[in-house]
């Protein structure tokens, strides 16, 4: 995400960095390039104008132009103003003082309301809450079935009534069930349309009046660009939304929606969808997103992903094994499975400072390769997994036959294992130098 915007802003910054001192004309030229980059990224024109005016005003001050490193000052100003546009800090989901907390999801058809209702429910479930999903889309074919499918996948109960065609009545009945059975969060999946119409908006207003939601979250496809702003303005004017979920932020989006919606509506982006899997949802942190856009990485989000994917107890056990040089092939396989749980490698690499998003475009852990490696390791005896040095020619032939692989694949696995083991040995050896625990328990 934002790859094109990041590249163009980085090019504009290079012109600043190549000069020891800056003039007002230098700043003006650089701001023009940043302005074009933002417009090409489909950022709303009013937002671009306000942003450029604010940055230019601060950048031509004496503190910047007369400093020894004016380019760094300008990067800092751009970073701060990007944060300001997107909301400055993460705003959490509001929890009602008296349960249940009711979250109503609205938006156009195809934005991802149903999927993201389940994603949010799973997120809240992980935080110890008891969510209920409510199917209020009585128009789209198979909408109710879809919610039941994703609800089952995340282990959350779904309330629906296929004999009832009035979504307001369904929402009211769901509230009664939630109060009776002790659900502390209710996520209402409403109907969308291919475009905004009076019938849709009136229905949503009736549901709002009936259940008095704690949050009204507008689900917007990030790839809509300028249209996302128009959709947000319209829904906000009629429903007074409390926040936004931006979906498909992992797609070929230019970033305009993320930089425009907050500024235009005054309502925060609370979550972003980053993939198709039901755990691919992240809280939106404006400062981290600004850092990504400027090519400065997002180490905090990377650490959070690692902490979520890696079991702390296993990490401590792994650290002990590495120190005692008892890291086995079983441990090796387990680590790869956990890295796979962190998601797309390209997204992870893009969070590292100084690494361009797209450096590993479409790179993923090869699931077929992982399955073959797992078959190889599971075809070994416990003694062979603990000490692969004993694997002679006859043992390898037996393992290849048992796993449906070849001796060449076994040799390749053993070579990779040796390299990883050596790398981990270096990490543990440098631990005192770093003075803190390294990522993933190393």
Description of the structure:
With 442 residues, the protein is α/β, with parallel strands linked by helices. The chain has three domains: 84 residues, SRP54, nucleotide-binding domain (Four Helix Bundle (Hemerythrin (Met), subunit A), Up-down Bundle), CATH 1.20.120; 196 residues, P-loop containing nucleotide triphosphate hydrolases (Rossmann fold, 3-Layer(aba) Sandwich), CATH 3.40.50.300; 140 residues, Orthogonal Bundle (434 Repressor (Amino-terminal Domain)). The chain has 21 helices and eight strands. The protein has an eight-stranded mixed sheet, sandwiched between helices. Strand 5, helix 10 and strand 6 form a beta-alpha-beta unit. 38% of the residues are buried. The C terminus is likely disordered.
Features:
single chain; 442 residues; alpha/beta; Four Helix Bundle (Hemerythrin (Met), subunit A); Rossmann fold; 434 Repressor (Amino-terminal Domain); 3 domains; eight-stranded mixed beta sheet; 21 helices; 8 strands; disordered C terminus
What is the mean pLDDT? Answer: 80
What fraction, in percent, of the residue positions are helical?
55-70%
Q: Given the helix and strand composition, which structural class is it?
A: alpha/beta
User: In total, how many domains does the architecture comprise?
Assistant: 3
Beta-strand residue fraction: 5-15%
**What is the C-alpha radius of gyration, as a whole number of Å?**
26 Å
| Strand runs, count | 8
């Amino acid at each position: 995400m934002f790859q094109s915007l990041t590249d163009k802003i980085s090019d504009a910054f290079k012109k600043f960095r190549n000069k020891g001192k800056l003039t007002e004309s230098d700043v003006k030229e650089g701001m023009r390039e940043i302005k074009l980059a933002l417009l090409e990224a489909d950022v709303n024109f009013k937002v671009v104008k306000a942003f450029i005016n604010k940055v230019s005003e601060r950048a031509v001050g004496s503190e910047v132009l007369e400093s020894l490193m004016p380019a760094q000052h300008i990067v800092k100003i751009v970073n701060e103003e990007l944060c300001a546009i997107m909301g400055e800090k993460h705003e959490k989901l509001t929890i009602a003082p008296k349960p249940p907390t009711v979250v109503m999801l609205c938006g156009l058809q195809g934005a991802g309301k149903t999927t993201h209702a389940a994603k949010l429910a799973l997120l809240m479930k992980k935080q110890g809450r008891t969510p209920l999903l409510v199917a209020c889309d009585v128009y789209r074919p198979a909408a109710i079935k879809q919610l039941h499918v994703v609800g089952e996948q995340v282990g959350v109960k779904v309330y629906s009534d296929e004999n009832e065609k009035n979504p307001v009545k369904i929402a009211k009945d769901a509230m009664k069930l939630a109060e009776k059975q002790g659900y502390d969060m209710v996520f209402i999946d409403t109907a969308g349309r291919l475009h905004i119409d009076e019938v849709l908006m009136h229905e949503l207003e009736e549901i709002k009046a009936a259940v008095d939601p704690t949050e009204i979250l507008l689900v917007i496809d990030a790839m809509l660009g300028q249209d996302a702003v128009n959709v947000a303005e319209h829904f906000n004017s009629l429903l007074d939304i409390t926040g936004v979920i931006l979906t498909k932020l992992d797609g070929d989006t230019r970033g305009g929606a993320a930089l425009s919606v907050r500024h235009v509506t005054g309502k925060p982006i609370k979550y972003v969808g980053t993939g198709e899997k039901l755990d691919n949802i992240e809280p939106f942190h404006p400062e981290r997103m600004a850092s990504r856009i400027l090519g400065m990485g997002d180490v905090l989000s990377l650490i959070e992903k690692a902490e979520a994917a890696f079991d702390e107890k296993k990490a401590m056990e792994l650290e002990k094994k590495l120190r005692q040089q008892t890291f086995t092939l079983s441990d090796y396989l387990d680590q790869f499975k956990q890295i796979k749980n962190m998601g797309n490698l390209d997204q992870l690499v893009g969070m590292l400072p100084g690494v361009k998003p797209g450096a590993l475009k479409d790179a993923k852990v090869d699931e077929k390769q992982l399955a073959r490696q797992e078959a190889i390791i599971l075809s070994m005896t416990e003694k062979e997994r603990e000490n692969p040095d004993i694997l002679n020619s006859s043992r390898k032939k037996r393992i290849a036959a048992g796993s449906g692989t070849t001796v060449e694949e076994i040799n390749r696995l053993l070579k990779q294992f040796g390299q990883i083991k050596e790398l981990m040995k270096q990490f543990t050896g440098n631990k005192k130098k770093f003075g803190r625990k390294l990522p993933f328990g190393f």
